[in-house]
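ok trying again, last paste got cut off:
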Amino acid sequence: MNRVAEVNRALKAQGTSIKLRAGRGYYYFDGEALGWRCSSVYVYRASDLTVDEWMREFSDFFEGLR
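nice, full thing came through this time. structure:
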């Protein structure tokens, strides 16, 4: 299964419209639609992190916005 899709489903389940997106050599949480900054996670493949690890990355990103 596609890890990015899994992470995006988990984000949606938390009620956020932020999505995990792929860049060149990194992934990032895209919150531009909400006027938020983006946060990059430098991993080779999305599958390098579990969904739980991605959700912790998101949680750290979200806490930094407050």
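cool. The CA atoms of residues 7 and 51 lie 6 Å apart. The chain has two helices and three strands.
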